Amino acid sequence: MSIGNETIHLPDIVNEAYAVEMRKQVQQLLQSGKVNILLDLTDTKFIDSSGLGVLALTYKSVRAAGGRLCFCSVGTQPSMLFELTGMEEIFEIFPNKHAYMEAIAAS
């Protein structure tokens, strides 16, 4: 199992079409033994309900594989969505990639 960290940069809109692609990408990382994954939302302006559902399923898959799925640079709409749905209490969210890397190094 790799202890290296993988980063996936999400696009400006995370909807069902992209969510399927992202889930496939995460599954490939998990199959290769890379279980610590950071989803960078720097460019993400909007996540729809399908996108949120896939993020939640992806989180469960990564946790089941013994890994960590974290989020960073979460903008206004995604942040509000996470808050309204209670996902901010479940997802591990960092202000930026640097803060994530510091937390990983400390653990």
From TrEMBL:
Residues 1-107 form the STAS domain. Pfam families: STAS. CDD domains: STAS_anti-anti-sigma_factors. PROSITE patterns: STAS. Gene3D superfamilies: STAS domain. Belongs to the anti-sigma-factor antagonist family. This is Anti-sigma factor antagonist. It comes from Oscillatoriales cyanobacterium SpSt-418.
